[in-house]
Design goal:
Strand order of the largest sheet: 2-3-4-1-5
Distance between the termini: 57 Å
Helix content: 55-70%
Number of strands: 7
Oligomer: single chain
Largest sheet: 5 strands, parallel
Radius of gyration: 32 Å
Low-confidence stretches: none
Structural class: mainly alpha
CATH class of one domain: Alpha Beta
Strand content: under 5%
Length: about 850
């Protein structure tokens, strides 16, 4: 029975009820040791079983915190017979970590998707409650996979509860429940239930501070007149109490308790095998069992509380701990289990141990358990004898940490490797890893310098690879000198790079030479990632969107979840330029969700550029400025372009012009996004009656448009010429080019300006056509201030705008839009789920919510809707 836990029980009851009703949810129970988290999970398990839910349980084990997928194996072991029901890539990922399949070739987050699908499949037979205790001790790979699944629960009839201590197991995005300390009345009832004499209760209640485990342990301690230090915090005093109890055991019993604590998983046969080599055995556990500190079954040893195991381990001398781990390593039949004990059993350099640890790291990396791999490689380096091996393993440790979404750890490991290799030149792999970590940490300029400095001293092939990476980094930071230097060095090495050379020319505003090189590079598409960025830079919107969509589809099909955020970023940018704002927001929302899971915080900042521009077009000033303000320094050019557009739309032309002129004199002045703001700069200058301030940007725009070969760019340039020259033929030519497609927002702006020009020329009848078209496009795009301006012009011609009919998909959420689009194309719920990293039941839930908004009742009707 639980005492004083009515609030916490109500929260858990609500979660269980949601699962019974067809919904899902996840909850984190967080609190200090002994506060009653395990008891709450036990109550939830009993309550769920009574109501007919299937209960799955996982417990994090402190000694297994670095053992790849140890926690997830607990979850999957009883469900192995269901794995073949999953999509093939997901089934292969789970079989691999169970040692029943191939171990290479999948993305680390495919495992999390597979867990979600497995739980959803299990819930088709009835609601499921998944309980994870001591989550702070889950290995990182298991925690990552379970959290990935938990964050995507929606309508699967699955409830997940994680119990964890105060520190460790960060789970942003999940609801947290923090059990309170017991009040005096509840504490007294608990002590009475444990038959504590009334004379002791008041003192024990005062000392325990409402911690349930402390109440029980302090009461027991008072019976034997224990004197644990009163100055310690309650959890530390409980630990001290357990140490005192263990200290009173016979020496042989203490050794057996240490073996059990060091082994950690409760594997009695393994413990006895190790014990035999140390001269103790099963009989020596009897005193600990009689004291109530452990429980022994036929094959499992269980500590009464994790703190008992901690006390047994920490209370032993170092030499004895080393001997125990050595015995466990020798007794183990599993190479991964052996590798788990070897670091603690090795106090001096040992080439053989180092090789074993490196092999275990390679196996962990093959299963995408990158955090475990990083730790194992680091441990291998620690005990390595050869300096070259040390450097190699530290480099691999850094690369694994980076792949695991931990750039800070990767940077530290890379620096350690460089200290070992000094004063010799670090190799290309180490340099690339360190530079990538620096870039992800926001140290873009330092990453560029590192690559350039090392490239000149490296072998030609390796140096060329460093310089190509450095060009991309330097472009994003607006480092003109670095881009130019890299292009020149590549040419000098005999490895000229069209993209580097093209960007170098763009940095110097030599568009006539730079843009054709980039156009050719995109056409050849030798490198998909670089081609995607090239397409954005030159404004080849249709080609970029097609390439990004194909690459996103490939990532989805192969389960390459970690690679998706940057692909979706490019896709969202292309969708934005194409006027597909809803689709762009949906792509950003998906990318942000995945980036949060993969630790790519830098990517989230870049993604905000898309939503900031949409807010600028909509005239949502607060949101636009908030997004720009939260962006990093490397975002300066993008932020200036977005705010300039916002201010032109709101009629603050002076602020826009001053901002954009300042941006053009700073770093990143030739960035593609800033070039897209030149029309705003020109319009602001003309509106202010200062056409001389439009001359230089107009020349730049004309040169860019002519060299790019993009119809939309030439149309915008002609519009700006018309704006500055008052020449109608430029408007007419611009509209003919706009008809070829691309950038509808710019098309509508041309129609608006031409309509304004016609009205001022006292030709209201002719002005109405372009103004009606402008209102229609602006309304569809949600460009509120622009639509208002076009509407005012229409009224001035004596005509009201036509009634606008919202698009069928206007009321859908980004997720619903994704699902509906795929369903309309004929894909099944299972296929949609695999593409969007959801469960089939959640797909059906989104369709159920979308049908009323679209005015349909079935999938068949979706194909008849225009969902753009």
């Amino acid at each position: 029975m639980l005492y004083g836990r009515s609030t916490e029980q109500a929260e858990l009851e609500c979660l269980i009820t949601l699962a019974l009703q067809g919904d899902s949810g996840a909850l984190v129970v967080r609190g200090e040791a002994g506060i009653g988290k395990t008891a709450l999970l036990g109550w939830a398990a009993d309550r769920a079983s009574a109501l007919g839910l299937r209960v799955l349980r996982v417990t994090g084990i402190e000694p297994e915190a670095d053992l790849a997928f140890g926690g997830l194996t607990q979850l999957l072991w009883p469900l192995q017979d269901r794995l073949d029901r999953l999509p093939a890539p997901q089934a292969a990922a789970l079989k691999a970590l169970l040692g029943a399949g191939l171990t290479r070739g999948h993305d680390r987050f495919l495992t999390g998707l597979a867990v979600l699908t497995l739980l959803a499949d299990l819930a088709e037979e009835g609601p499921v409650l998944c309980l994870v205790d001591d989550a702070q001790w889950l290995d990182h790979a298991s925690a990552e996979a379970m959290l990935f699944a938990a964050r995507r629960l929606a309508a699967e009839r699955v409830a997940m509860v994680f119990a964890t201590r105060e520190d460790g197991f960060a789970a942003p995005g999940l609801t947290e429940l923090r059990p309170s300390r017991l009040d005096g009345e509840s504490a007294a009832r608990l002590l009475a239930a444990h038959e504590v004499a009334p004379v002791l209760r008041e003192q024990v209640i005062a000392e325990s501070a409402g911690n349930p485990l402390a109440l029980i342990e302090f009461a027991a301690a008072r019976r034997v007149r224990s004197t644990e230090p009163l100055h310690l915090q309650v959890p530390d005093r409980v630990l001290s109490s357990f140490r005192a109890q263990i200290g009173r055991l016979p020496e042989r019993t203490r050794l057996m308790a240490l073996i059990a604590a060091a082994e950690g998983r409760g594997d009695l046969p393994l413990q006895l095998k190790a014990a035999q080599s140390l001269g103790v055995g099963l009989d020596d556990l009897e005193e600990a069992e009689r004291a109530g500190l452990i429980q022994v079954s036929e094959s499992v040893v269980t500590f009464r509380h994790p703190l008992v195991a901690t006390a047994a381990y920490q209370g032993a001398a170092l030499a004895r701990r080393v001997a125990v781990h050595r015995a466990l390593a020798e007794a183990s039949d599993s190479p991964d289990c052996r590798a788990h004990h070897l670091p603690a059993a090795t106090v001096e350099p040992d080439a053989g141990v180092a090789a074993e640890l490196a092999a275990a790291a390679e196996r962990a990396a093959a299963r995408t358990a990158y955090t475990a791999a990083a730790r194992l490689y680091e441990q291998a380096a620690r005990v390595a004898i050869d300096g070259q091996d040390q450097v190699g393993w530290l480099t691999r440790a850094a690369a694994a940490a980076l792949s695991g979404g931990h750039p800070g750890q990767a940077a530290v490991l890379a620096e350690q490797a460089e200290r070992v290799v000094a004063p010799a030149l670090p190799d290309a792999e180490l340099t690339a890893v360190r530079a990538a970590a620096m870039f992800e940490l926001g140290e873009e300029a330092a990453a560029v310098r590192l690559l350039h400095d090392r490239a000149v001293r490296a072998a030609p092939r390796q140096g060329a690879a460093m310089l190509r990476t450095g060009v991309t980094y330097a472009w994003f930071t607006g480092d003109e000198a670095a881009v130019t230097a890299a292009a020149e060095k590549l040419a000098a090495l005999g490895s000229p790079d069209p993209m580097a050379e093209g960007l170098s020319h763009l940095m110097r505003a030599d568009y006539a030479r730079g843009l054709p090189l980039l156009v050719d590079f995109l056409a050849a598409a030798p490198d998909t990632e670089r081609a995607l960025y090239t397409g954005l830079i030159i404004g080849a919107d249709a080609a970029t969107m097609a390439l990004a969509a194909a690459e996103a589809a490939r990532c989805r099909e192969q389960g390459l979840i970690g690679a998706l955020p940057h692909v979706l970023q490019v896709l969202a940018q292309a969708q934005l330029w194409a006027g597909l704002h809803r689709e762009a927001e949906a792509s950003v929302a998906e990318a942000v969700g995945i980036a949060c899971d993969t630790g790519l915080q830098q990517r989230i900042a870049w993604l905000s550029g898309v939503t900031a521009r949409i807010a600028a077009i909509a005239g949502d000033e607060a949101r636009c400025r908030g997004l720009v303000a939260a962006a990093p320094d490397a975002y300066r050019a993008t932020g200036a372009a977005v705010l300039g557009l916002l201010e032109v739309g709101l009629g603050d032309h002076e602020a826009a012009l001053n901002r954009l002129e300042a941006a053009w004199s700073g770093p990143g002045r030739n960035a593609a996004v800033l070039l897209s703001s030149v029309p705003d700069q020109i319009e602001a200058a003309v509106r202010l009656g200062q056409p001389h301030r439009a001359e230089e940007p107009l020349g730049r725009l004309l040169a860019w448009a002519d060299a790019s070969g993009q119809a939309w760019a030439r149309a915008v340039a002609l519009r700006c010429q018309a704006l500055t020259s008052d020449d109608e033929t430029h408007y007419e030519a611009a509209l003919r080019l706009h008809a070829e497609g691309g950038r509808p927002f710019e098309h509508a702006r041309t129609q608006l300006l031409y309509g304004e020009w016609l009205r001022r020329a006292r030709r209201p009848g002719e002005a109405r056509g372009p103004l009606h078209a402008a209102v229609e496009i602006f309304t569809r795009l949600g460009a509120v201030p622009w639509a208002g301006r076009a509407t005012s012009e229409l009224h001035a011609t004596g005509e009201a705008p036509r009634t606008a009919h919202p698009a069928p998909a206007a009321e859908l959420t980004p997720q619903e839009l994704h699902v509906v689009r795929l369903a309309a194309s004929g894909r099944s719920s299972r296929e949609i789920a695999a593409q969007l990293f959801l469960s089939p039941r959640t797909v059906e839930y989104h369709l159920y919510k979308a049908y009323p908004k679209l005015g349909v009742t079935s999938r068949r009707e979706l194909s008849r809707l225009h969902l753009a």
